[in-house]
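User: For a benchmark we're assembling, each entry needs the component sequences followed by a predicted structure for the full assembly. Here are entry 17's components. Please fill in the structure.
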Amino acid sequence: MKGMRRSGFLILSALAVEPLHGYGIILAVERMSGGEVRLAVGTLYGALDRLAGEAQVEVDHEEVVQGRLRRYYRLTGSGRVALAEELTRRERELSAVRAEIGQVLAGFGSPEPV
Amino acid sequence: MSGWSRWYRQLLLVFPRGFRDEHGDEVLGVLVEDGVGHHRLSESLSLIREGLRLRFSPSSAHLRPLVPAVRFGALGWFGFVAGFHLVREWAFVASLSGHTVWSWHLVVAGAALLVVPLFRGVVARLILVAGAAALLTMEPFWFADRVEFALRYLLVPAVAVLWVDAHRLRWVAPTAGLLGATTS
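Assistant: Structure for entry 17:
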């Protein structure tokens, strides 16, 4: 099975907690990725459009704050399923890799015997 | 409207009208919240990239169901046309000169058919571009009208080049090429 894009995975993960608007998603993704991923606004809305097309996210509600429109998004049922499947896939892959190379990695960083 | 706001609003013109109507103000609002407030190159580039993708990408929701059929058909048609005309041109040129001739058209288009299964992504697309170019620049022995030639034979390979996932469908073009060659 082909894996999910990283941006899509992180956006679905952010929305799994609670409905968020665009800027809220950017902040949550940055937090969940340990500061590694800062979504550009264009990238965010491209991904949201794709995820909405796949019926994985939908609009939750809208509000106007300081004259600016905020549209909140939430996960759909199939979005939750897709996220759970992706998590399982990633965990399975990680476990398999660890099982294969764990011993080798354990050797890295250990001091050379003198 | 501030200068940067006008700049981003102009960039939104890259997006399809439906997207602008639905999300234009929302996107500008997020840019404000994100504290962009100036012409940030990375934001501008991401808006242009995503706008073009939404405009032209076959992954747009309404086109998505057609994508596999279009890819398969485009590659198959490209292969069939290439195979068919490669044999015809070879036979024609050989009959003129009295011996076997390898024109660059034959070599490039034939090689494109043979090697495209070995590559994927950008390389596969470049090979298909070369093959399509070779087909297009063949002497118009068979075509009374170059416009008709371009419409019938260039547009389809162009679609294949733009949309093909040559790895998954790697045998479609060569198989169709063989079919075209045998029916020539």
